[in-house]
Structure formats: structure tokens, C-alpha cells
Amino acid sequence: MILNQILKNKKWYSINTLGIGLAFAVALIIFTHVKKELSYDNFHSKADDIYRITTEDQQLEGQPPTSGIDGRLILPLYTNFPDIKEVVRLIHPDNTIITADKNNFSSKQLFFTNSQFFKIFDYKLLRGNRANLFNQPNQVVISKKTALAYFGTEEAIGKEINIQVQYLYSKSGNYTVAGVMDDFPDNSHFKADLLFSINNNEDINQFHTYTYLLLQKERNLSSLKNLINAYWKKNTKDGEPNPISQLMPLRDIHLYSHNADEMSTNGSMTSLIILIAGALIVFLIAFINYTNLNYVQFITDLKDFKIRMINGASLVDLGQIIFIRSLLPISFAILLGGLLAYNFDTISASSFNMNISAFDLLWISLIFYLIFALASLLPLATTKVSKDLAHSPYQGSKKFVASLLFQFMLSIAAIITTIVLHKQINLVNNLHPGDEKSAIVIMPDVPYHMIAKFEVLKESFLEHSEIRNVSAAFYKPGLNIPFSYPFEMEGIDKTVEKKLNMFSIEEDFFKLFNIKPLAGSLDMGITSSIPWENIALRIHDQNPNKDEFIKNLNAYTKEHGGFQEKYILNQSALKVLGIQNPEDAIGKSFQFNFMAPELFQKGKVIAVIGDLHYGDMFSKEEPMVLASKNLFNSTFIAKIDPRRKAEALQSLKTEWETLSPDHPFRYEFVDDLYEQIYFNQYKEMKALTLFSILSIILSVLGMFALSSFSIQHKTKEIGIRKANGSTSLEILMLLIKEYTQWVIVAFLIACPIAYYIARDWLSNFAYRIELSWWIFIVSGVMALIIAILTVSWQTWKAATQNPVEALKYE
Amino acid sequence: MIKIENLSKRFRTEDVETTALNEINLEIKEGEFVAIMGPSGCGKSTLLNILGMLDSPSSGNYYFNKQEVGNQKESQRNAIRKGNINFVFQSFNLIDELNVFRNVELPLNYLNVSKADKKARVLEVLDRMKIGHRKNHYPQQLSGGQQQRVAIARAVSANPKLLLADEPTGNLDSKTGLEVMNLLTELNSEGTTIVMVTHSERDAEFAHRVIRLFDGEVMTEKTAKEFATINY
After folding, report:
1. Cα A650 to chain center, whole Å?
2. A549 with A651, same domain?
3. N vs C: which end of chain B shows fewer Cβ within 10 Å?
4. Which site among B72, B110, B157 would you substitute to test the A interface, given the most A Cβ atoms closer than 10 Å to its Cβ?
């Protein structure tokens, strides 16, 4: 009987099944995702008492804070503050070479840490004794995965691992494996494969260090912060350290910390809220469709229900029938939604890593059963079936106006925000330098011995025709690394101390990224060589052989044919300098006052460029000065022929390995780098686009069903109008007018809502698109066209019917 | 069995009030077969609906088996109706999705009847209505006369004391109509009280008594014999 019912009303049932199914899939996916995002670092038993230090440079306005602090500030934390129980230091050096079992490896997930690490964190140790770890010097703990990669199935404990760290010579050497830990869980805000020991009291000066504090249960965060800041200020000899801006709770790091130097890309609460809101919208639209269609179904069945009541059925009996009848489509929907959710990563080519637990599946299914089965009783509960058993009630389509309005409002708002997101991401991508970002290969964190061989490598790269350009820079695209020092410039008042951020580039950098000057010429000519720079770097007041070094340097300079330092300014720098016309800066003498004063010689400003937008777009462009110091250029960049990608990558690899057989070739594409940086924004954009499409599809289905119902009920009216001389077109216009006015009202409500959401989201970016009026108009017109198309087809069918047929309809 | 005192029914639509029944007094005894006649709009169907407790009066009293039911709550009226009263309609009102057997079974589903008893009872009624061979058919597959026989079978399957028929032959040709009237007479002779609304003078002849309504008021009440003499 139920099957009979369903077959008879297959239109209603398939729309409902699809709607609930999509809502179920979305609910499952979003719930699983949100649950994972909220679970970050919860698995540590002391999570509530662990904090990470965040510091902020007071002088750099609008810059994100950093999570690392200067190493020399850490030691006082051990003893001077009773609120602090333990201190864990994590140092993450770039440019390392690891040797194990005579093989060379590189790892990005490598840290130096002290023994307290194993006391405050609960990462699982598979082999070794937790209590004794790092009791001896030079020990290392490795992950299961690393043990397998380095030593195969052999016992790893007791094996030697050698590490060479470029900027931390004192820590290079042999380390003994003292423990094997389980691979870090997905919901850890950082992942480590190798943890090398440092002594608790070891003074590692001036090295960027992530610092975690285990605090007493009884603690006063703000007073602790102030005490530490006051202590640092008083006891630091040279220069004022950046103060702590926040003690970030461990559990909050993943969702709330967006510092310049995060250990991995964090999530964001905004993303979660957008996802949840999107899921709610889809759910609401599906729910509205369901209740509307249920009501329509109920009206169709009303006669039957009345007959049943006349024959003795009670409201409870009717409720039972409706309830049981609803279970089948809900079951189908849950099956469909479950399948969609489990295959979501494949379907959407995204990486939500759907790991839906059976328990979640079960209780979310139950909730869906309950909500939708109970909702199926709504029409029975709100209609007085027994009140007037002898009469059929008047059924108008007015009842559905509010819900159609609501659905269209949500859909229009979704379309508007989706357009805004796409436009903004587009803007961001276009502002970053480089025309074909998918054809620019980055070789990041190049080891020193390869930096020294750059010229040779460049030459051998360029012998391959598929490699078009080769250059190098200070750091890789997407990063904003502060490197600001004072400077002196002709015509600029020296008494006011201003700083500029230095960015070092190789001479072909501008050609590779296709950057044109606003004024001057970007021809760098002869630049300083690495041996020259090496000598210059070591000349400072404390060096006892200072004079000898200066002599050497001068000799070198002559050998080079006497190079002159050249500086390039960006537009933001001009603003800081108060120069209106870029031409006015050209030819002015300039000196960058680095700690090693000889490294940057007095030179001239040769060009002004527009803001580079090499870093991310969350912060404003820094006032920058560009110069060429090859020693600093640890990021190699190659522009390749996009049609011969595979070939080019192979050539890069071969040439690299010829020069550096021990250090593996690593590369990234620029577009991927930027996509990683805007990981959350891309995720939001993709999810929102999907949600918009879903909500539009569901709204259209709902509108289609409702309009076919209301047109069915208008068949007689249409017949009478036609019998009285109305044309089909007039009737069509009449019906379209009715729907158009509701879409317009929905549009008017949606606009301010969407405007507010879009503005809020855009405020993340330092550079943002205009919220132009056409975005709103286009969205409204799109919704209107969709609505008209949906309604017209059926209306036309009804309007062109023979009036005699229509009049027969009862 | 039925006693009606000063019963009125008024309908209100927006600003117009229509009086469908105006201060009616009426008595129907157990075992009677009463026909209600009158022109369209005179209140026949309204009266029948009130008698069947599908509708409530605006004022006045309605006693069913000496119990006042006109002013009872819906749920109580539904409870009294169950098993005591059933209907036969002009448009049959069968449920399209249920087959003949399930349609006839309907009233028994809502009474405490065992499955075996239900089956026996339905088959018996179907046989009696000479429709047993079509018990697995659906309403759309039956002729008008057959559908009305199923409707009557359903109406009497729970042995109601009162059967209310609203133009039971209105949609039937005269031969099938006659068959239906014979069935009703037979049921009446077995003790079922019948109140029938009809336009057909011929059908009215089957009744013991004819009540004529005009503009919501009882004009004449005549026995069938008197009625017959007036007409012929």
C-alpha cells in the first residue's frame, strides 16, 4: 500500500528524498569536519594548562604576531615565575641534512626540543622509556613512519642519526635513537617526525623558538604576561625584545592562531561558522521543501483521511499512517546521503578526509528520522481534519508564500556571497607577482653549499630550452618575513628613526616575475658575490680581526671591477619616505643599516616598483627595499614552459642532483604555495559554491513542485479565463507576475544580509574588492530567471490547454 | 433512538450568515427507515451530517440513544460514532489505494476485532453484497453499482445501529439503483435504522416515513403510505 502511494506521487517523493538526502550528506560531512576541527590537541591530558607564547613587534603596525621568541629570552622563564611549571622549547631549523644508515634524508617535520616535551604532551611512545628520554645528551626520538623509512624493519632504538644544521652548527652531529613514537594524530596542530634533544638549560641564542608553558592550575594569565614582559624589558641587554601579546591556550591554536610563523596551516573559526551556516541553509531549504510538499500531499490525501475518520479512525490512527509512510522516503534519503558523504572526497575532489564514525552516522540518522517523521505530522496537527468531516477545506497556495520567499532569500544571499568570494580570490591571485603561477617552480630552503653554487646551477638549468628563466630570492612566495632595519637616504630627515624591510633578490627576479618599474631601471648590473658577502658579514666591532677583514673585502671589491650597491624601493616605502613622484627617488644615495654594517654598502636608488605582494594578502604590504645579497637567496626560482612541465621538472632534478647528490631535490609550484596560504579561504569558497548550488537546486525543486500544485488547482480558473477570451500569453504573464513579485521581495531582503556577510569576510584581507552593485543585481536576475523558467514550463502547459478540458477538471 | 430539539445550524462566511437548519424538531425510532427530501440547499445534507456527528449544531439539542451528543466534544462524538453509525455516500468515497477487501475492513480496524473475526466478517458481508469475487480488485476497476455495493458493505461491516445514506443511488442507473435500495431495505428489515437523503421520489417509497425540508425547516412529515397516496 505504501509503495502504491509512493508510485502514485513519485514527483513529491523523489524531490523529498533528494532534498533530505542532500541535507543528510551535508550534515554528516560538516558535522564530521567540525568535530575534527574542534578536537585539535584535546588528546593531551594537560591540554587545559598548556599555553604557547605569542609575541608582537610593537613597531610593525598591521603585521601578524609571531609564535616564536628569541631563544635567549627563554631561560629566565624556568626559574623566575612560580605560575610556570614546565617550559618546552621547539626549534625548527631549515636547511638540514640527515644521514641514517648511510642514506641521506630531508624532513620538514624536524624539531629540537628539551626533555619536558614528553612530560607535558601525550604523544604516544611506542618504544623507549618516557621517563628517561633525553637524560643523556644527543638523543633523538623518531616517529614510526620515520623509523620504517630510515631503518626498515630493524630495531631503531640505539641506532645513530647524523644531522647537519646550517645555522645551528653547535647542534650538528650524531644522535642516538632513544625512542619511537606513534605518528602524530591528524588533529595535532603540529606534526613531528624527528625530535632531537637539547639540554634544558642549554642557551641557544637568538634562534627562533616556539615556547610552550605548562602553568599551575591556579594562575593569573594577564599578570603572568605582564611580569614576563617587565622582566624581559629590564634584563635584556641589547635592544628591546618583542613583548608577549598573548598566551595562546593549546587547544585554541588550531582555530584561533594565525601568526606569521605557524608550524602548519591552521583552520579558522570563521571557516567553521561559514560551513555550519551553509549546512544550515541547505538543511532549512530541504526542510521547507519537505514540509511544503507534505502539506500538498496531505491535502491530496485529505479525502481519504476523512473517509477513514468517518469509519472510526482516530487522529492517532491517521498519525500512525502518515508517520509510517514517511519512513520509507527518509530511509532512502539517508542511504543516498550516506553514500554521498562517504564518497565526498572522490566526488568533490577535495580533501575533507571524511572519516565518519559509525556512531555519528547512527545518531545523526536517528535525528533525521525523528525530525522528518515528526515534521510529516505537522499538516495533520495544524489542520482540523475532524472539525469539518463533511466539507473539503479551501486550499490556496498563499500558505507557501512565506516559505518560498525564505528559500529564495537564502539562495540569493548564497549566490551573492559566492560571487564575492570568487572575485576576491581572483583579485588576490592577480595581485601576486607572476603571470603563469602554475609554471613557476620554487626550490625552497636551499642548503648553503647549493646557494654557493647558484651561478653554476643557473647556467646548467638554462641549457634546457624548457626552462625559461632562473632566479633566486630571500624566501619563498607567500611568506612575510620581517627583516627591518634603519636606513639613511639622501634628502630624508635622519632624526626620525624609520625602518624598511629588506628583501634580497637575484638580478633576474624581475624578468622572471615580469615586474616593470614605476621609475628607473631594474638592471642590477654587477652584484656582490658570495665570497665577498661572507667576508662582509664577519666585519663587526667585536671581531678582533676587523681591520684585516676590511682589507680583504676591499681587495675583493677591486677584483669584481668595483661593484656599486643598488637599491630598489616599493611604493609603500615611498609613502613612508613622503615621496610623491617615483622619479624623485631615482639616483638618491641610500644605505641600509644592517647589523653587519659592511654587508650593505652605500649605494643609489635605481628603481621604484609597485607593491610586490610577494607575501600573503592578510596584511598590508610592508615598506620594502630590495637589494641583491646572494648569500641570503636561499629560494631558487625557475620559470618553465607550461606545456613541457614534466620534462622541465626532470631536467631541474637531474641538474640539481648532479651538483648535489646528497641533498634531495625539493620543489613546489607557486600557485600551490598561494593556495596553501589561502587554504581556509579556498575551502570556504569551494564549500560555499557547493552550498549555493545545492540550495538553488533544492529551491528550484521546491518551487517546481509547489507551482505545479498551485497550477493544478488553478486549472479551472485558467479555463474560465480562456473561455472568457483571455489568451494563453496573458495567462502566462499573469502567473509569472505573481512569482516575480515574490522573488523581488526575497531579493530585497537578501541584499543587506549578503552585504553584511560579504563585508565581514572581506575584512580578513588587506586588499579587497569593491562590493559593487552589479554583483547584487546579477544575483537577483539569476534567481529571477531561474524562478521564471521553473514556473513557466508548467504554466505554459496549463495555459495552452483547451478550456473545455480545463473546465472539466474538478 | 434519535431525538432532535430546536436544532439550528448557521454557517458564517466572512460577512454573510446563512441559516441551513432553523429550529428543527425530529424523532427517529430504532428500526425505522426514514427518507429526507427537499429542494437543493434546503439543509438535507447538513441535517444528515449532524445526525452522523460529522458536524455540530449551532444551537439546540441532539439526543442519540438518550445521550446528548450535539454539544459534546469532537473526540467524544467520534467515540460514540465508532461502531454505532456509518455512511453511504452518493460518490461512494472508497479509498483508491485500498482494494475491496481492505476498504470493507476499514471500520473493523478501529474496533477491537480479532484478525480472524475481521476476515470472516468482511467475507460474509462481501458475499451478502454479491461482490465477494472482486475482493482483490481496486475501486477504479469496478462499475458504479459495484462500488456502491462495496461502500454499503463497508458501512455495515461493523454492524452499525444507524446507517446514514446521502443520495445512495444518485450516481447509479435506475436498475442498479433499485438493487441498492433493495439491499438497504433488507438491512433495515434486519434491524438497522436507516436515514436516507434523496431527491428520488421512487427511492423515498422504500422508506417508512418521509420528512420534507424547505429552507431549513421541516414542512411535512408523512408515512410512506400517505406519501404514496399523495403521489399516485
Report:
1. 30
2. yes
3. C
4. B110
**Cβ-proximal residues to A685 (8 Å cutoff; 6+ apart), any chain:** A418, A421, A422, A425
Q: Locate A665 and state its grid cell.
A: 631535490
Map out the domains of chain B as residue ranges: 89-159
Residues of A in Cβ contact (< 8 Å) with B158: 312
Closest C-alpha to A722, from A637, A809, A619: A809
Which of A183, A217, A251 terminates a domain? The answer is A217
Amino acid at A337: G
User: What DSSP string runs through B37-95?
Assistant: E-STTSSHHHHHHHHTTSS--SEEEEEETTEE-TTS-HHHHHHHHTTTEEEEETT----
**A389: confidence class by pLDDT, cuts 50, 70, 90:** low
Domain end marker among A640, A666, A692: A666
Could you tell me which of A415, A419, A423, A369 has the C-alpha nearest to residue A700? A415
The residues that bridge with B12 in the sheet, in sequence order, are B17
Residues 6 or more apart whose CB falls under 8 angstroms from that of A544 comprise none
Domain carrying residue A160? 86-217
Rounded-to-integer distance, Cα A98 and Cα A172, Å: 10
Q: Does residue A264 form part of some domain?
A: no
Strands B33-37 and B209-214 come out as parallel
Residue B209 pairs in a beta bridge with: B34, B223
Q: How many residues does chain B have?
A: 232
| Residue in this structure with the C-alpha cell 618599474, named with its chain if needed | A517
Mean pLDDT computed over every residue of chain A:
85
Residue A808 pLDDT greater than 60, yes or no:
no
Q: List CB contacts (< 8 A) between B54 and chain A.
A: 310, 388-390
Q: Is A724 exposed, middle or buried (0-12, 13-18, 19+ CB in 10 A)?
A: exposed
Residue A410 belongs to a domain: yes
Same domain, A487 and A388: no
How much is the pLDDT for B36? 93
> Do A532 and A657 fall into the same domain?
yes
> Which residues of A fall within a CB distance of 8 Å from B98?
1
Phi, then psi, of A69 in degrees rounded to 5:
-125, 165
Q: Does A313 touch chain B (CB under 8 A)?
A: yes
Looking at the domain assignment, is residue A42 inside a domain?
no
Judge whether A298 lies within some domain: yes
One-letter identity of residue A704: F
pLDDT digits (tens, 9 = 90+) for B143-190: 988 998 899 999 888 889 999 999 898 888 888 889 889 989 999 999
**Three cell numbers, residue B83:** 461502531
Q: Which residue of B lies nearest to A313 if distances are taken between CA atoms?
A: B110
Among residues A249, A111, A250, the alpha carbon closest in space to that of A181 is found at A111
Q: A662 and A692: one domain?
A: no
- Split at pLDDT 50, 70, 90, the class of A96 is confident
Number of domains within chain A: 3
Out of B55, B81, B109, the one facing A388 most closely (by C-beta) is: B55
Closest-CA residue of A relative to B86 is: A311
> Which residues, other chains included, contact B109 with Cβ-Cβ below 8 Å and sequence gap of 6+?
A312, A313, A317, B118
> Using one digit for the tens of pLDDT, what is the confidence trace for A135-157?
888 999 999 999 999 999 999 99
| In a shared domain, residues A539 and A658 | yes
CB contacts < 8 A, A to B, total 58
Assess whether A657 and A702 both reside in one domain.
no
Angle at which helices A358-375 and A10-38 pack, to 10 degrees? Answer: 140
C-alpha dist (Å) from residue A600 to A471, A532, A540: 20, 11, 13
Supply the ipTM of this predicted assembly.
Answer: 0.80
Q: What residues of chain B lie within 8 A of the CB of A308, using their CB?
A: 95, 106
Query: Which has more confidence, A317 or B97?
Result: A317
DSSP A53: E
Question: Which pLDDT score, from 0 to 100, does residue A805 have?
Answer: 60
